[in-house]
Design a protein that fits this description.
Helices cover 38% and strands 24% of the residues. The protein contains eleven helices and 14 strands. The strands form three sheets. Strands 2, 3, 4, 5, 6, 7, 13 and 14 form an eight-stranded mixed sheet that branches. Strands 1-12-9-8 form a four-stranded mixed sheet. It is globular, with a radius of gyration of 20 Å.
């Protein structure tokens, strides 16, 4: 372990967030097959790369969901009680939230995300544009329980979970998240959620293997992050991005593939890779309307309206917490 890595290990050992990152990285790379959690894509660099992905011609989810929110914004906003607190799970860019803001009278906005630096920047921009809107950013892992800010606890609450991020969870994890969101938001809460739909496999392949290579850089950034924050010594150039569609499981899988035999060190631990060995970094499940409705009902939510684009590429659902 080099001097720089030793120093970083000492610095980060006592930092709670870095310690969670380190623990998960060590645990996940010790598994067979190896994996890394997609939630660690979203440091400041990863968040910026993802915003670039959303603008790519091959990447249909963002522009399709935005079109649904524009076309049906009034109907979607009609489910949001006046003066409600909108809690956005995994908040990134505020573009989608702003479309709803233009149609309804929110009492407060609570963006929740693991990337505190990116979250702060977005919150400041929103306050500047909407001075009367109360904004309470929460830096947290939205897939686990967290506390809402005290000023919004008595307000009616609406969860907002756009972007098909639910697809990154295994089905049992998606169910657990929806249960957790219901507990966080409370009785009578509502939820607006974006869900990507099953479609032609070529469209899916191209969306995650863009010709400009931005998704590849986004995937590889998690190794750069390990090197930056945990004193790792990954040879990032020795890995390539690969995304495939698993037909049986209705999901896109993202992998980082080692091009050669190598050893990487993280906080004093060595991890060996064979040529062609994979780190499985992300799944993106695609749903039919029927399978998502069944998942929601089994997770404590009652779907009561949904909207799709004309081609049936993407869906937005409105749900209410079951009694």
């Amino acid at each position: 372990m080099n001097v720089r890595a030793t120093a970083l290990a000492e610095v980060h050992r006592f930092d709670e967030q870095a310690s969670a990152f380190a623990r998960d990285v060590i645990d996940d790379l010790s598994r067979h097959p190896k994996r890394l959690s997609p939630k660690y894509f979203y440091d400041a660099a990863g968040s910026e790369l993802f915003e670039q992905i959303t603008l790519l011609p091959e990447y249909y989810p963002t522009r399709t969901e935005l079109a649904i929110l524009r076309d049906y914004g009034r109907a979607i906003s009609a489910i949001i009680p006046k003066g409600a607190a909108l809690v956005e799970f995994g908040a990134g860019s505020t573009t989608k939230m702003r479309l709803l803001l233009g149609e309804c009278g929110l009492g407060a906005y609570v963006p929740v995300d693991i990337s505190g630096e990116f979250l702060k920047t977005q919150a400041e921009a929103l306050r500047a544009d909407f001075p009367s809107l109360q904004v309470y950013p929460v830096t947290a892992d939205f897939s686990a329980p967290f506390e809402l800010p005290e000023p919004v606890r008595a307000m009616p609450k609406v969860g907002f979970f756009p972007g098909s991020t639910l697809g990154n969870f295994e089905p049992h994890e998606a169910c657990a998240f929806l249960h957790s969101a219901r507990e966080i938001l409370g009785r009578g809460a509502r939820m607006v959620i974006g869900v990507d739909l099953e479609k032609d496999e070529r469209v899916l392949y191209d969306a995650y293997n863009d010709s400009a290579g931005v998704t590849a850089r986004f995937n590889l950034n998690v190794l750069h992050r390990i090197n930056r924050e945990l004193g790792g010594d990954f040879d990032v150039g020795a890995f390539i991005h690969r995304a495939i569609y698993n037909r049986d499981k209705h999901r896109i899988e993202m992998h980082l593939i080692s091009k050669k035999a190598l050893t990487a060190r993280v906080l004093g631990r060595k991890f060996s890779f064979r040529p062609g060995e994979s780190i499985h970094t992300e799944n993106s499940y695609k749903y039919s309307l029927e399978r998502f409705t069944a998942l929601a009902r089994g997770s404590g939510w009652k779907p009561f309206e949904s909207w799709t684009d004309a081609a049936g590429m993407f869906s937005v659902h409105a749900m209410v917490a079951s009694d």
